[in-house]
Amino acid sequence: MPNTRTWLLTDSPASRSQAAWGRRYRAWLLFRSNGMAMAGLVVALLLVR
After folding, report:
1. Residues 35, 20, 41: CA angle, nearest 5 degrees
2. pLDDT value at position 41?
């Protein structure tokens, strides 16, 4: 069985659920690559805490 990252990033998902999780993972990777967005997330989490 392939690892989770490979499963999430496959070009041909085996199910709708896998495709949905793949979209969420790609969105997270895009968000994570944005430094300002990550800083904002940290600030928001600190304010909620």
Report:
1. 25
2. 96
